[in-house]
Automatic annotation (TrEMBL):
This is Menorin-like domain-containing protein. GO terms for cellular component: extracellular space. It comes from the Eukaryota. It comes from Anopheles atroparvus. InterPro entries: Menorin_dom. Residues 16-271 form the Menorin-like domain. Pfam families: Menorin_N. Belongs to the menorin family.
Length: 297
């Protein structure tokens, strides 16, 4: 789950995952250069099928770094991975090593990317997350189509022990207050993981959960953790779009319950500051709570 030798794998990062820092949508070459020169620890980027800008004939569709609906980029997945691999191998300070989170918006893009990932990156040495929304999720979300979970897991097994960042499609915004990850949605996630034997192969799993929704879902997130904790290393990654309505105190309760050692917080700076995760008193109380609660499930 954690980058070997890098700052993400340091003792302080392991005990407080909320300190891990992120760069988002690193989908072009110049932005990647800036991020590699920064202290950012995790690089998140989107992979779609499309064309390099210099491919004027548009005859060579390949996995590129782009978020739909974009179908052009100046950066292919292969080049993206090779640049980060070269940087990580040459890093003379362990804290400079970057983890990567590859966000796939379609099953076609993921399946076409497997061979490239296997040959262009060292997943055994450097932290590699494979992200996709594999199930429909809260608040009547019908606009976003989830990635087919069976095909996703079939392809993911070819990547060995990469961390699987698997979630639900969601709908939320500034005016939303009601919504949660339901019993049925949590059951569906547990069942699809077991049906595809991911509990048996033991990949680390992080569940990307939307801040405003997971704040209302503490009980079901405990149940999700407890169902899989004996077979997979389970963490949560809280994310939020700018302007999302979030009950900060409820979200703090969720983080308090899961623990700083099992909760990444990838949210806008203003929300992160409101959570006051640097408070020593808060950090010291986040121990053993999750494990202790599993006796009820």
């Amino acid at each position: 789950m954690l980058a070997l030798g890098g700052s993400i794998g340091s003792a302080s990062a392991k005990t407080n995952l909320t300190k891990v820092t992120w760069a988002h949508a690193v989908n072009d070459a110049e932005f990647l250069t800036r991020v590699l020169d920064s202290d950012i620890q995790f690089i998140e980027a989107d992979i779609s099928l499309g064309y390099l800008i210099e491919d004027v004939t548009k005859e060579n569709e390949i996995p590129i770094m782009a978020h739909p609906p974009a179908v052009e980029s100046n950066l292919s997945l292969e080049t993206f991975l090779k640049r980060i691999l070269k940087f990580n191998r040459e890093a003379n300070v362990a804290s400079k090593v970057k983890g990567i989170k590859l966000d796939f918006k379609s099953i076609g893009a993921f399946e076409r990317s497997i061979g490239i990932i296997r040959t262009s990156y060292d997943m055994a040495k450097f932290d590699t997350w494979i992200n996709a929304d594999i199930l429909p999720g809260p608040v009547d979300n019908t606009a976003n189509v989830p990635v087919d979970p069976t095909r996703f897991f079939t392809a993911a097994r070819r990547l060995g022990k990469a961390t699987l960042s698997i979630g639900w499609t969601t709908r939320w915004g500034a005016d939303f207050t009601d919504g949660s990850y339901s019993d049925a949605q949590v059951d569906a996630m547990i069942n699809v993981i077991r049906a595809n034997d991911i509990d048996k192969v033991g990949n680390a799993i992080t569940f990307p959960v939307r801040a405003g929704i997971v704040a209302n879902s503490v009980t079901n997130m405990i149940r999700l953790f407890c169902a899989l904790k004996d077979t997979n290393d389970v963490t949560f990654t809280i994310w939020s779009s700018a302007g999302d309505a979030v009950d900060v105190e409820k979200l703090r309760e969720f983080i308090f319950t899961t623990g700083l050692d099992r909760t990444y917080v990838d949210v806008p700076d203003d929300l992160h500051e409101k959570l006051h995760l640097d408070k020593t008193a808060f950090e010291n109380t986040c121990k053993k709570t999750m494990q202790a609660r599993c006796v009820d499930y």
